[in-house]
Amino acid sequence: MGKVSLNINGRAYGLGCETGEEERLMRLGQKLDERVAQMANQFGQIGDLRLLVMAGITLLDEMEDPVSSVEAQVKKRLNTLETETEAATEARERTEVEAVESLMSAAQRIERLAERLSEADPR
């Protein structure tokens, strides 16, 4: 059996866990500490128990409504992708216009050169 010492809101808590689960428990403890710190910043040091309860409730609330959280993330990512797609399309169109203009300019230079060569050719 493994043992982990978690630091939550400046206090150490020793917990037991299955062997091999120590790293996961440490990571979860760090997330809880971060949430408690957010609560403490928002509401002040109103007591460890209250902060832990508030942090637990907010975490459970997020877990209860994962669909809307995921939907919000998907919408945000879709908006980003749409913006990137529009920018890429505009860049491609600009590049195409520049390429056509370059080809037209080259064709005009070739025509002028051909005219000069035909004028210079005594045949």
UniProtKB/TrEMBL annotation:
SUPFAM superfamilies for the chain: Cell division protein ZapA-like (SSF102829)
InterPro entries: Cell_div_ZapA-like, Cell_div_ZapA-like_sf, Cell_div_ZapA_N
Top-level taxon of the source organism: Bacteria
Coiled-coil blocks: 78-120
Keywords: Cell cycle, Cell division, Coiled coil, Cytoplasm, Septation
Subcellular location: Cytoplasm
Xref: Gene3D superfamilies: Cell division protein ZapA protomer, N-terminal domain
Tagged with keyword Signal: no
Principal location class: cytoplasm
GO terms, biological process: cell division
SUBUNIT field: Homodimer. Interacts with FtsZ.
Main function: Activator of cell division through the inhibition of FtsZ GTPase activity, therefore promoting FtsZ assembly into bundles of protofilaments necessary for the formation of the division Z ring. It is recruited early at mid-cell but it is not essential for cell division.
Protein name per UniProt: Cell division protein ZapA
Organism: Algimonas ampicilliniresistens
